Structures are given as C-alpha cells and as structure tokens.
Amino acid sequence: MQTVPSDNLLHHVEEIETVYTKNDVNRFLKQGWVLLSVGSGQEQTGQHDYTPSFAYCLGKIKPKNV
User: Fold this and answer.
1) 13-19 sheet: strands from edge to edge
2) Please, which domain of life does this record's source organism belong to (predicted)?
3) pLDDT at 1
4) What is the pairing mode between strands 50-61 and 34-44?
5) How far apart (Å, rounded) are the C-alpha atoms in residues 59 and 9?
6) Is 22 left (phi over 0), alpha (psi -120 to 50) or beta?
7) 3-class state of residue 56 by DSSP
8) What DSSP assignment string belongs to 19-46?
9) What pTM was estimated for this model as a whole?
C-alpha cells in the first residue's frame, strides 16, 4: 500500500476520472484509485419530483520510483 502525505496528494495524481455510480466508484477504488471529491445535486425526474445525484472525482496516484 502506497502512503502519500495528505498535503501533497494532488501533486501525485497522474490521472483523474469522474464517475456517477457507486459501482463505478468501488471498481476504481479496488484498482488503487483515491476519492478526491464528491459533488451533489438534484435531477428532475418528473414535473415536481427530484432525486439526488452525485458525481465522484477519483484520482490515480503516480507510482513511486523505486
């Protein structure tokens, strides 16, 4: 497991991906990506009905040179 100091985390991100479902989030996390941020909002599903929606931003950390 790679440990990166939190104050320098963004300097170690080599790729960013935005996904919209928990299944996709879990798939990326299992591949070693880290959760960078979560955005939330509402989607209109009917004339007066809204459901919450989420966008998850994940980052792939650069491999450490050995």
Assistant:
1) 13-19, 50-61, 34-44
2) Bacteria
3) 54
4) antiparallel
5) 10
6) alpha
7) strand
8) E-SHHHHHHHHHTT-EEEEEEEEEEE-S
9) 0.72
Helix (H, G, I), strand (E, B) or coil at 63: coil
The answer to whether 4 and 45 have CB atoms below 8 angstroms apart is: no
The pLDDT tens digits along the chain (66 residues) read: 566 555 677 788 899 999 999 999 999 999 999 999 999 999 888 888 888 899 999 999 888 765
3-state secondary structure at position 5: coil
Helix (H) or strand (E) holding 61: strand 50-61
Chain centroid offset of residue 61 CA: 12
